Amino acid sequence: MFCGKKCSLFCLFMSIWGTIQLLLMGMSYSLNSVSMIETLPLKETYKSLQQFRTECDHLNRTLALRCYVAAIIYALFALCSYICFCTRKRQANMQKIQPKSEKALLQKNRFT
């Protein structure tokens, strides 16, 4: 398909790691985690505390949705990497099996 066995295995692990990280970040944004407030693109000043809270809630929902969408994309890439890895592994196994059977046929033909 796209790459070799080692490259697809590396991409698979990186995609799984990225998916988990993005899901955790999305959960943090969904729960309005205070530790993630520094990553919000907030204005410098607000007229009231209610306006600040409303803006934070809206930005948290938006960023959580973005993290979930990115996690889905990473999961799809992990699926593609897994399919590529399995395909390459199957091809390697077929190449290992095929020469042995051809050698056995050649040896049988010599003795008969």
TrEMBL record:
Its main location: membrane. One of its GO terms (molecular function) is RNA endonuclease activity. Keywords: Membrane, Transmembrane, Transmembrane helix. It is a multi-pass membrane protein. Coiled coil: none annotated. The keyword Transmembrane helix applies. This is Uncharacterized protein. It comes from Drosophila mojavensis (Fruit fly). The gene is Dmoj\GI18823.
